[in-house]
Queue: 2 jobs
Job 1
Amino acid sequence: MAGIAFVGLLAAKPIFDVISRAEDPKKAAEAQTAAQTQTKWGMAIKIANCKDGCTDCINACNTIHNVPDIPDPKHEIKWIWDVNYEDVFPEQNSPFLANSLKGLPVLVLCNHCDHPPCARVCPTAATWKRAADGIVMMDYHRCIGCRYCMAACPYGARSFNWVDPRPYIKQINPDYPTRTKGVVEKCDFCEERLALGLIPACVEACTEKALVFGDLNDPNSDIRKLLATNYSIQRKAELGTGPNVYYVI
Amino acid sequence: MIEKAFTGSRKYWAWILFLLIIIAIGFGYYLLQWYRGLGVTGMSRDVSWGLYIANMTFLVGVAAGAVMVVLPYYLHNYKAFGKITTFGEFLAVAAVIMCMLFVTIDLGQPTRLVNLFIHPQPHSILFWDIVVLSVYLLLNLVIGWYLLRSQYYGEQPKAWVKPLILISIPWAISIHTVTAFIYSGMASRPFWLTALMAPRFLSSAFAAGPALLIIACLIMKRFAHFDVGKEALQKLAQIVLYATIITVFFLIVEGFTVYYSQIPEDMSHLDYFFVGLNGQTTLIPWIWTCLIFWVAAIVLLINPRTRKNEKTLVLAAAMVFVSMWLDKGLGLLVPGFTPSPLGAITQYLPTVPEILISLMVWGIGALILTILYKITIGVKEERGEEESHAISFSSQ
């Protein structure tokens, strides 16, 4: 009996592998063989470098991506924003947290996970993990607005357009699409800028060099060198999502 | 057969008119939501599912609960349920249609619904939920209608319906299991991340579905003078009783693991639900009403005197139905989203448009149920119940 059950489990495993994975299995296999040459974009945030009250990176992102400024906090759209250290890393909390970290605003954004739960649950592949460079992409035209991805994201990185965002955009940037009501959006690591050979807008805007962006698959990249010589943590790494945003404490 | 729905008393037409008014009002507000977006609801960035998905989840249970009359009758030849199996099947039909409407009105871009079919993603549990719900709807519609039609024309049902009936039984389990998997597979929300989710869903479904059927049977007895019989009602009451007890047991089991293990994140969600968190106490009356109703209903149903008295029976059934809605509706969703992954406590209260749009869907469900039940009563009164469902799988 146990033998039969075991064989049954073996037979079921490939099926589970398929349904629990967001990417096409064939593409994933190709991606694995190409892993050595493939790009994997990631970001490191040196939280101590942030200047008090500085929002340069947030402003740059919002302006370039037509992120609306909606006053009602329930309807806010956020791509990159800051939250207290204690809430970003609840598992790091202790009664004797270093003074420098207490209440420290820490930048949060989409982690462009290796195994994104949002892409796994999306019923239409309106959000998916791009095999070529690991960016978790959004198709604003395919999204049906079911918000399953928002429930699945362990980082609260996703925003939904509860209302038409256009009246809340101060100056529309014609080079980037505005969104309609009823779709989900989030940080896309400036994939439109990367395609032109530019670095993400937030990284460019930071005068304190607090944000380091690069290819995590390239051992000679700035980000890899930084991570090799500094202690860094990820948000909720224990969930196995494989976040690609690192925090240098 | 359908002509039975077009003749009725003044009360029947008054009820239909009442439902149409509710639907019309709700539809007006749905148009408002259509033009302004889901911002007209109380949902937010942190609590991103609300009353609509809560109702959807609960109604999948009502639909699955119908199997509790189908199974004893067809598989165990339990004759007392002969008169109510069709009502069970049609209850499932109305409930599944309501589920689908609730999912649709919750979409930010309802016109893109078609993307679900042109870009289906088997790794999304929502895809499987749509598959199992659609098939369950078809199964119950075909089985219920065909058997009633056979009775109407005095014909022996053909054999092809038998495998459909057999499939519909495990299928009922599947719809609620898959719906539970929507929640229980997400690492992001500790409140939902429990293997007990599907069993809990099923036990509450087997209480809520038959409870609604008891209420419907007593309404039909009063207003349509159609009596399903004491034995059927009493058996339904017992099913509701045990399913409610198991639901309460599951909640205790869940609570034990969370509070004995003392994992802070897991506790924060239950705290928010039962005692409040950081001064936020919105949900406390919610869950305590639910608990009081459970206990009161169990007492009323366990005591033979109050179970056999139709007045106390309908009260108990109503308390079970409402408490299961409280528990599995917003009681499941809001604590799941609160506190948010970033520790924020955002209050959620449904808005007036949101409530009226939900009532529209309930109104449509009640309308479908009324029409189907009216037809069923008409056929059964004309034909008598001896021939009803002249199909059986065992000779016990």
Job 2
Amino acid sequence: MRLADLLSLPLVALWQQKTRTLLTTLGVIFGAFVLAASLSIGDGVQKTINREMRRVEFARRIEVSVSWGPAAPAARETRIEGTFNESRRQRLLKSQQEMSQRTRFARPKIALNQERLALIRALPHVEQVVPDVNDHGFAILENRSVNTTLCRARPDDETCKKRVVAGRFFESPAENAAVITEDLAYRLGVRSDAALDALVGTPLVLEFRAPKTEAPIGLYLANQNGDMTLETQQALETLMDRLPDSLEKLGLSTVAAAAIRGALKKPEEPTKPMPTTRETLTIAGVLRAPSDEELNAPHEYSVMHAGVLLPYETAAAVFFRGPDPKRKEGLNNASVLVDHEDHVKPVLAAIRGLGLEARAMVQFIDRQRLIYLLIFAGMTCVAAVALVVSAIGIGNTMFMSILERTREIGIMKAIGADNLHLQLIFLIEGAVIGVVGGILGLLLALAASYPGDSWVRSMVNRDLDIKLEDSIFVFPPWLAASVIAFTALVAILAAVYPARHAARIDPVKALRHE
Amino acid sequence: MLKPEPESSAGEIAIRLRDVKKTYGSDGAPVHALRGVSLEIGRGERVAFMGKSGSGKSTLLNLLGGLDRASAGHLSVAGHDLGRISRRALARFRSESVGMIFQSFNLIPSRTALENVELPMIFAGLAPRDRRALAAHALEAVGLGARLDHRPSALSGGENQRVAVARALVNRPRIVLADEPTGNLDSETAETVMTLLLEHVAQNGTTLVLVTHDEELGRSSTDRVLRLKDGQVAQ
């Protein structure tokens, strides 16, 4: 028997039973549709997550932080006075010690200092190391000074770039430049648009002063604008020096005067001249205040609210040159960008090997992917069940068809069909139903993906404020091939028993069959 | 192609049965359809089997046509030992060596006359163009050249049986087995069909085995009449 005839006989038989073939194929179409849609959206969502993560660099970013050690030991031993039973004494002692611990700063086990930042920068696949520098000092413009916060920024920070109203944003992470806000410029005495534009290219001095002591009382002397100038800072320090000697003139009770005197008591350390450092940078640009939309968008708070921004490498250099001895203990955090998300895990391990804490979004993303995979695996199982149900339908339909065609099978046997011919004819009938059902189900899923994609896009845009660039339904060639192959396989398997039954029909009995 | 076993010394024997038995139902109450039939039919000979219902005529015809296997004995048809050949070879034997004509025509209702006649050639592996031409020629030979695309439901009983004759003869079998071929036809149509059949048999030297109840048809159409009674050849 020729191959073409082996294909045409089943096709003719299916065509002659159009309604039955259609109904049987509908079951396969539904199963294939669910399977294709499930695989498509599963793959599409994974790709969308990867694409979105790659777009916002989340997947390539590692957040590094120091590992904190115990706080410095308390100056004096904690004691519980009074008469308490032992268990209560222990509870009170413990809570007092914990309170004492909270009031003292912990020290990092391993400092995130310049040397370690350099080690991280030298790791393979590390593209960028952005130290998390947040500082405060005095900005000095000509003869005006004002206290301000400063923060490091990345030259590719698109939100900051949009805020530039004069000059430009940074061109490199190490340039000796600063950008300041309109607000800081105003506080520094700039009073016209022209004067603000003229700031670009002029020098800005930043002065950093170490805390003279760890003063046990905080006093704040504000001028009318709420700004602390160098002069008010110096006046405050003078006040704190002279206040203990003036307490008697204030008419305080003896107890109150003793309490304040105790609070103002200076630690017993040699008095040194208060160290200061000065940095001179060129003003590259001026930023407007962030809009409400920008403030609501996910962005670092300190970058959005700092009066002065420095390129991140310059900021780190300035920080480590600062006067505060604590700066030697390094920074608390840094952000590391890796060249590809596949390299995040080895870099993460290397950073942890340096004794630092490190976390990456990729770990969270992996968990999310696992969740999605489980969901879509469940959906695929449902689709497989649908196909199994379809397969039962196919088997039933074909069995009924064989019963109806018993005489025809007998005739075919009488005129020369052998068992193999008949088995193949019925298996091919099953395969045709499977392939056609698979293709139509696939096309249906493809057609449904357009409204489905629009709906998901609008939902994501509305609820998450994310504009998806590409479809979350993907139909790669492997998916189409898999769906069609699977439906064909299921249909063929469903046809095996009816086909064997057909082949075993006794032609003598079949020819008598009415 | 099947390789027939060497034929008798004279080369004249088309069918040989030696003590052929056929029993249905091995347990309980077995039915002995054939109880040791021995006979020989020569090549080109026309033989009629007659007998009452249940005498074993159709059983014998099914064995000769390779539709069933004997329970015991030796059965050789067109040089093939039907007791020994495989199922596949038996199917090929049915396709190439014998043509069968049934009382109830046994045409496939969903196929046209041409397609019905083509069917044996499909299983024999002929190319579509060749088999289509042969089928059309066979139908023209039985006077149905104008009815090629008609389905059996659109043809009369006589026309259906002529299609069945064309189908049986189209592969040029060495043996034609006809089971009551005129049983469902009026006398005039029956005569036409038998004339066509006998003409072909005569022209091609084909062996004809005819099963019939019609005494006159048996005598007039064949060289020899064998009577079956209770599963045995009575005469």
